[in-house]
Amino acid sequence: MSSIRVIAIAVISRPSDGALLVYDGYDSVTRELYHRPLGGGIEFGETAEVAVRRELREEIGVELADVAMLGFLENLFTVDGRAGHQIVAVFSARLVDTSLYARDEIAFLDNGVAWKARWVVRAAFRSEHEPHGPPLYPDGLASLLDRA
After folding, report:
1. Which of 8, 49, 65, 82 is positioned for an S-S bond with 89, CB 3.0–4.6 A?
2. Running DSSP on this structure, what letter comes out for residue 122?
3. What radius of gyration do the chain's Cα atoms show?
């Protein structure tokens, strides 16, 4: 990727235990499993909030409520051997359909690829207390959530 991609993600916490709704990613080069909140690209002429609502509607068929900006992150990364650069608008939100909080997984298709979103408690992410857990991406998200 030779350009900067601007994306918006939704941090959705399950009320019962604070688990985050994330998808499992896998880097085929490093063989690393990682987690990332759902979201995607902001289209020209679209606000970041409109984009995050659209992306969640398109990806898993949900409507969001109480969408609030948490901040922006700059993400320089390598995945599958390719360098990437993102500006990430991070929002907190809750699900309008509260029955989804009781489900373990939500299956979805993104660009024809099957994915699963699932609830993961924050203690399971890689940190100084859990050095072997999968990381939560984008970098800096955990710190942003700690300050929110």
Report:
1. 8
2. G
3. 15
Per-residue pLDDT tens for 90-101?
Answer: 999 999 999 999
Task: Please report, for residues 3, 19, 40, 59, 80, the alpha-carbon distance to residue 111 in angstroms, rounded to integers and kept in the order given.
Answer: 20, 26, 12, 9, 17
Nearest to 135 by CA among 56, 33, 16, 44: 33
Domains in the chain, ordered, with CATH?
5-147 (3.90.79.10)
For the entire predicted model, the pTM comes to 0.92
Give the whole-angstrom CA distance, residue 101 versus residue 42: 26
How many beta carbons lie within 10 A of that of residue 99, not counting itself? 7
Determine the Cα angle at 85 with ends 115 and 19, to 5°: 40
- Which pair of tokens denotes residue 133? 């857990």
Identity of residue 6: V
d(CA 60, CA 6): 20
